[in-house]
Design goal:
The complex is a heterodimer of chains A (1058) and B (262). Chain A has 1058 residues and is of the alpha/beta class. Chain A is built from 31 helices and 50 strands. The longest helix of chain B is centred in the last third of the chain and has 18 residues. Classes of the chains: A alpha/beta (1058), B alpha/beta (262).
């Protein structure tokens, strides 16, 4: 009936009998709909005058064995369809006007071919590619079958064309995030990720040389390293460099001052200690603090910790801090403002704020009560933990920023806030710290043999004489307690005991500190709450309550040190009217750090935003400086807390599972002399240790933000301020050419991929035999760089695989992918034996079988194989056990290199576009076509077409052919000028609809929207609707109807069948 | 055993299980699992089912669609796995630091590869099951899928071949520095346990680890008595050191000291 003769018979019947409907008893509408609908249109019947009685799937296919009954069933189906046709109401179709433009998603050979074809036809094309450059998979290949021509040679002209054709708009580092609208007027949202390099880039490559970060090269399938800035290959389009920034490294996120930790580590790994110091001191004026007294949360978060052990960041930080002498002298900032700011307190918070303000361009004066700057770093932390010279050098660097220090000036006694403001300071920062020991209800101080830890440590730091006695008991369990106990030992005490209420295993003090103290002979008594100090006059013992029963324990002592929490010394308040202290903290606005008195700020331990550690004090100093800057400039009174940035995330699978490399141990001073020595206890890494340790970093953030590139770029093209942005393109059609990904051979652990160095994939081999590859085309096995003499290629890895770990389909290209590599190797290394272990050899493409025959004459050994075992020998060669399934014999052979021909699967980009465009994927992730045979380049959604390996495994010529077919489909659609919407579309009755939005959620085409014009109700965009009927079935109110599927029609059909 | 006899016994077992209201047949032995499960497929062939029922008629039983549709064949490991979420709270003895490798039973992994729980080529269920006890997993190792060497009569008719395979496996496992190899089939257990020391002696190689059925190791972790429940005395290998290590026996050194002080 679908031929010319059938058409004539239909015409005659309609005209002679005056029919108004045609019922086709044949196959499905999907297959033959357009043919008969055209006839109906030409006969001027209604838009839905054709009905289909599917006798093929519904009857003849399933009842082959019972022809008589099948005949009867067919008659019933036909009768029912006729009954239904009689009930059909007339449907309307409307026109959509078409944009003469298209989006091509995926910039591989498929996407580029489609784009080129469309541009040639005069259609504007947006070519959207996720990666940095166009080129896709093909750019990474060596030579291609069956002609053995160089992949890049055939690709480069396409790349150049895409770059220069004015009708092709290339969007790299971009992805489609939403698709809506009808075919002909698709609204495509595109997210552009920043390259952090502006168009000024001249691709000179200096940044790449300067970049200290080494990453696995995706382009080389991990066979080589690359830098965090660069471009994958010389012909890349666009030509500009890109910084691979994957998010803030977790070490940086964890650091209170957001030190670019990964950058510091990377620079140390390159031996660039001076640069590392400079980078470390960019956010933090006291890098020495980092390596010594910081609780190093960075190490807790370190990604390397998920592999074996975290990188010893503190050790590295300390190493660079020790090189402060080698750092470049401070560049004195120019004072851009004539405004003066005062900082009260020269501790870590005050000095940091002073340096930041000086960098902003203010004149800063720091007032310090003690005779020297440094605060807690100088007067609480003992010398054997933080050497005085080092601190002095770093304080000097702060002062070198043009900061003026006035030591020995006490707020309240020597000056007041009012006097400062009167003297012309426009802002005052109170960073007075916690100066006093917290009071304890034990006994009044001033008793001989009784001291507080703060007093003791400060007296020691000032060089004042301290009588410590012979047996010291320190009450308290924090860092100060241990510092005090160790200081007492150094001052000549015979024993020092730390007694604290916590359990000895759960001390508040940092673990390393406790361990060192124990090594020096400090004793720890946990679970003790002191309640009485014994002794008439001089102390003789301390009494404690122990355990829940409260039994009394007495520790004899001639010196008792109370290491209570430090507290604010409110003396300064007399000089700071209008500032309040509540609950031991200066009251400040949390967002701005300003006290209740305008122009007066507070930061550090004493403020209500108060930190607990020096590193947090430094962070607070930075915030205070920004806030003061905002205040002085009268700028937006915004939050001054640094916004959290997205942290780089690394999947476990991407972390190497090779042998663990443990961190370098921190050398510690040993020997009996240590407990009496003021020299530093932790000795620090040697340069070699530091470099070795730094190399353990997995560079999880990609770019480490060290900004080395910025320093060397002659074009000033580096732009870290770039942000991602989105745009919406309205186009007529889309071509999806998002390609494939390779089966991850780690999913088949017996093959040893990822564990054995000399097990690689065909793609990795492609890089090894490619002239532009990491070895310059020299075949070298990864373990030792030797030229392999015996190579085994295992086919069908993850393909034709019935197990749960593999895919069932044949990946189509692998037999010849292996063959071309075998051929190249035989030509270069005729003595190298290449064995291809195949399941079945499949070479159905044009000239493919001939090519396989040719290569087999070059001495490549093809063995029909069932794989058994693969074992790595001590010399890293591989023992492979397999069955020759032609002869039925078993073999065990030794190979130097095993190459896995891994199969193809739908790429991540394919999954992404499927999700946002409502396309279906098959089990292996490939996109489903509208009809596998008749409409192989049409997707399930009108106006979206498929090309290349996004649709299924295929080789390069087939990809190009399909891409051009997809382009032709776009052209035929767009050149008609307008589009008739389908007749059988859903529509919602506004009188019944309750506007619940269920339809909107279930529509796979995104064609239904709930609008609110007084009453919320659903509206179907009939141009986009494909008549699937899901919304009709889901509609709870019965408002949704599908044209051609009204209740009357369905009831008529069902009744006729009954 | 004649094929028909195997089928009839399998059909009878299934009938008994279903009639008794216990339609899941569970096996410690992977071969029993495979034979019974395979028989269920074969018994779907009308002719074989007819033959089996001819025999069953003599004992008044009938293998019909009801039995075929109800009976389930499960390795005991699968039964354990079905409750694996409860294991952490039931642990009485931590196996911290004990490195465990799996010997995947051929008749479990290779007869019905599609129906294996997990990866038939890198079977991990025993190690996953024991994860919460603090074991160190071995994962994949060279020759993991190689069989134990027993091969039923092979150990008797071809002992040198049989033991060569066992030795190969022991060598690979020694390189992995494991403490315990767990099995899921008594035949493997017996082969490894009985010949471990003999192979070590004749080859002069050290294999410093022991063999346990996964059920035994799980039971030990859950606090079972090594003698009355786990039957460790049936082993040829000396299990005392590992039992001591996991706290299933008092520390010998401590005991020795106590004795010395007496």
């Amino acid at each position: 009936m679908c031929g010319t003769e059938g058409r004539r018979r239909i015409e005659r019947a309609v005209q002679s009998r005056g029919l108004d409907h045609i019922v086709i008893g044949a196959c499905s509408r999907r297959v033959q709909g357009p043919t008969f609908e055209r006839i109906a249109r030409e006969l001027r019947l209604g838009e839905n005058a054709v009905a289909f009685a599917n006798l093929r799937e519904g009857c003849s296919f399933v009842h082959r064995d019972e022809p008589a009954k099948a005949q009867k069933k067919a008659e019933t189906i036909l009768a029912a369809s006729v009954a239904r046709a009689a009930q059909q109401s007339d449907l309307k179709r409307s026109r959509t006007f078409l944009q003469r433009s298209a989006v091509v998603v995926g910039g591989g050979i498929g996407g580029m071919s489609a784009a080129e074809e469309l541009a040639d036809a005069g259609i504007e094309v947006h070519l959207v590619e996720r990666q940095q450059s166009l080129g896709g998979y093909m750019a990474r290949l060596s030579k291609t079958f069956p002609t053995e021509d160089c992949a890049m040679c055939s690709l480069a002209p396409r790349l150049a064309n895409a770059a220069t054709d004015s009708r092709i708009h290339v969007h790299t580092l971009s992805e489609v995030t939403a698709v809506s609208g009808p075919p002909g007027e698709l609204r495509v949202r595109v997210l552009h990720r920043p390259s952090f390099v502006s168009e000024r880039c001249v691709a000179c490559g200096r940044c790449t040389s300067a970049c200290p970060v080494e990453l696995e090269s995706d382009f080389d399938f991990g066979m080589a390293k690359r830098k965090a800035i660069g471009r994958p290959f010389a012909n890349a389009v666009p030509a500009g460099f890109v910084i691979d920034f994957r998010g803030e490294a977790p070490c940086r996120s964890a650091c209170p001052v957001h030190t670019a930790v990964q950058g510091v580590v990377a620079l140390v790994a390159q031996g660039r200690t001076g640069d590392a110091y400079e980078l470390a001191s960019r956010e933090n004026p006291f890098p020495s603090v980092c390596g010594r007294i910081c609780p190093h949360d960075c190490e807790t978060e370190c990604t390397r910790g998920r592999v074996d052990e975290a990188v010893a960041i503190a050790g590295i930080g300390r190493f660079i801090a020790d090189q402060v002498e080698s750092a470049k002298p401070v560049a004195v900032p120019t004072a851009v403002y004539s405004v003066r700011a005062a900082v009260v307190g020269a501790g870590p918070a005050g000095l940091t704020a002073a340096r930041e303000l000086a960098r902003f361009g203010y004149h800063v004066t720091v007032f310090e009560a003690q005779p020297e700057a440094g605060g807690a770093l100088r007067f609480v932390i003992p010398e054997f933990r933080l050497p005085r010279e080092l601190l002095a050098a770093e304080v000097a660097r702060v002062l070198a920023h043009g900061v003026e220090l006035k030591a020995g000036q006490r707020c309240g006694a020597d000056f007041t806030v009012d006097s400062l403001l009167a003297a012309g300071f426009q802002a005052v920062l109170l960073a007075v710290g916690l100066q006093r020991a917290g009071s304890v209800p034990l006994a009044a101080s001033g008793r001989p043999g009784l001291a507080t830890a703060v007093e003791l440590l400060r007296s020691q730091a000032l060089g004042e004489p301290i009588p410590v006695g012979r047996h010291v008991v320190v009450v308290g369990g924090g860092d100060d307690a241990f510092d005090a106990a160790r200081t007492c030992l150094r001052l000549g005490a015979e024993s020092a005991t730390v007694a604290c209420p916590e359990d000895a295993a759960e001390l508040r003090a940092e673990a390393d500190l406790v361990a060192e103290a124990l090594e020096e002979g400090v004793e720890v008594e946990g679970g003790l709450s002191a309640f009485e100090i014994v002794g008439a006059g001089a102390v003789s013992a301390v009494r404690f309550r122990k355990g829940p029963a409260g039994e009394t324990v007495e520790l004899p002592a001639d010196c008792v040190v109370l290491a209570t929490e430090r507290e604010i010394d409110e003396e300064f308040l007399s000089g700071a009217p209008g500032v309040r202290v509540v609950a031991g903290q200066i009251v400040v606005d949390r967002a701005t750090m300003m006290t209740e008195r305008p122009g007066v700020f507070a930061a550090g331990d004493a403020a209500a935003t108060g930190p607990a550690t020096p590193i947090e004090a430094i962070a607070a100093g930075r915030r205070a400086a920004r806030s003061i800057h905002n205040y002085l400039r009268g700028e937006d009174w915004a939050e001054v807390w640094e916004p959290a940035r997205p942290t780089a995330e690394v999947a476990d699978a991407d972390l190497s599972t090779g042998k663990p490399e443990w961190r370098q141990p921190m050398p510690v001073a040993a020997g009996p002399g240590r407990r009496r020595s003021w020299a530093e206890v932790r000795l620090g890494f040697t340069a070699d240790d530091a470099v070795a340790e730094a190399r353990r970093c997995v560079a999880c953030g990609g770019c480490s933000e060290c900004r080395s590139c910025e320093t060397v770029c002659p074009a000033h093209a580096i732009d870290f301020d770039q942000e991602p942005w989105e745009e919406e393109l309205t186009v007529g059609a889309m071509v999806i050419a998002t390609g494939h990904r390779e089966f991850d051979a780690r999913r088949k652990p017996p093959l040893g991929y990822g564990r054995y160095a000399n097990v690689i994939t065909q793609s990795q081999l492609a890089r090894l035999v490619s002239a532009s590859g990491p070895t310059g085309g020299e075949l070298r096995r990864p373990s030792d760089g030797a030229v392999p003499k015996r190579i085994f290629m295992l086919q069908c890895v993850g393909s034709r695989d019935q197990t749960s770990r593999g895919n069932t389909h044949c990946s189509a290209i692998c037999c010849l992918f292996a063959t071309v590599h075998a051929s190249l190797i035989k030509q270069e290394h005729p003595d190298c034996e290449v064995t291809i272990g195949y399941t079945d050899l499949r070479a159905p493409g044009k000239a493919h079988e001939e090519y396989y025959r040719l290569v087999s004459t070059r001495g490549v050994r093809y063995v029909r194989t069932r794989f058994g075992e693969l074992i790595e020998e001590p010399d890293k060669s591989l023992r492979v056990r397999f069955e020759d399934t032609v002869t039925g014999t078993k073999a065990e052979e030794l190979f130097d290199l095993v190459v896995l021909s891994v199969g193809l699967e739908g790429s991540d980009g394919t999954t992404q576009i499927a999700r946002v465009a409502g396309l279906q994927q098959d089990a292996a992730g490939f996109l489903k076509e509208y009809h596998p045979k008749l409409r192989p380049v049409d997707s399930q959604r009108a106006g979206i077409f498929l090309a290349g390996t996004a649709q299924g495994p295929k080789n390069i010529p087939d990809t190009i052919a399909q891409a051009k077919a997809a382009a032709a489909r776009v052209m035929s659609m767009l050149s008609s000028g307008f589009l008739m919407t389908p007749a059988e579309v859903a529509w919602s009755d506004p009188a019944v609809c309750i506007g619940c939005g269920v339809c909107e959620n279930v529509c796979p085409q995104g064609a239904v929207h709930v609008v609110d014009d007084g009453i919320a109700h659903a509206v179907v965009e009939s141009e986009s609707c494909r008549g699937c009927g899901i919304c009709v079935a889901e509609c709870p109110s019965g408002a949704m109807t599908l044209g051609g599927f009204s209740d009357a029609e369905i009831l008529a059909e069902v009744t006729a069948r009954a | 055993m004649p094929f028909q006899t195997t089928l009839a016994v399998a059909a009878r077992n299934a009938c008994v299980a279903v009639d008794a209201g216990h339609p899941i047949q569970s096996y410690l032995c992977s071969t029993c699992y495979a034979i019974n499960k395979k028989s269920r497929d074969v018994l779907n062939v009308p002719e074989y089912r007819r033959q089996a029922n001819e025999t069953l008629e003599k004992i008044g039983r009938r293998y019909d669609d009801r039995v075929a549709g109800t009976i389930q064949h499960r390795h005991s490991l699968e039964i354990l796995w079905s409750r694996h979420q409860q294991i952490p709270e039931l642990i009485r003895r931590r196996l911290s630091g004990i490195k465990v490798a799996t010997h995947p039973a051929c008749h479990y992994c290779k007869v019905f590869p599609d129906e294996v729980l997990g990866d038939s080529e890198n079977f991990m269920l025993p190690e996953d099951l024991l994860e919460s006890t603090g074991i160190v997993k071995t994962g994949n190792y060279a020759e993991k899928t190689t069989h134990c060497g027993a091969g039923f009569r092979q150990i008797f008719v071809n002992p040198s071949l049989s033991l060569a395979v066992t030795r190969e496996k022991l060598k690979r496992l020694a390189a992995e520095k494991i403490d315990v190899l767990v099995h899921m089939c008594p035949n493997c257990s017996v082969q490894f346990d009985r010949y471990h020391d003999a192979i070590s002696e004749s080859s002069g190689e050290e294999y410093p680890f022991v063999h346990l059925h996964v059920q035994q190791l799980v039971a030990l972790a859950l606090g079972a008595d090594p003698d009355t429940v786990c039957g460790v005395e049936s082993h040829s290998q000396d299990l005392e050191p590992i039992l001591e290590r996991i706290g299933a026996r008092p520390r010998r050194s401590a005991t020795a000291q106590a004795e010395g002080s007496d």
